[in-house]
Amino acid sequence: MALSRPWWLADDPWLGDDKLSHLGWGAFLGALLLVAGVGAVAYWITILGAGLGVELVELWRYRRWEQAGRHYPWPLLADLTSYKDLVWNLAGGALAVPCVLVARIVALW
Q1: pLDDT tens digits, one per residue of 43-53
Q2: pTM
Q3: What CA–CA distance (Å, rounded) separates 63 from 74?
Q4: Which of 4, 66, 77, 94 is 20 to 30 A from 37, comparing alpha carbons?
């Protein structure tokens, strides 16, 4: 017996429409946290928590559009939940680390 996918879990590609948005949000939030001097554990918990928050907002907006009988717009904050979006958020957080490090080295130069 095959397991069925829950209704709220998207079957989206790894390079879908909104993946660069998630990468950018993760990187932006990561850069802000790094500049603020947040510790490593709090850094990753905040990146993951913010990603989960964005996924909940997306799901809420998707359901609103669906209940109104409309097709949802470009999936910027309006699609089903995806673990791939969370992976892209974490990748953005990882990308922020070398970017902020290089910016600090250049600032000292």
Answers
A1: 999 999 999 99
A2: 0.83
A3: 14
A4: 77
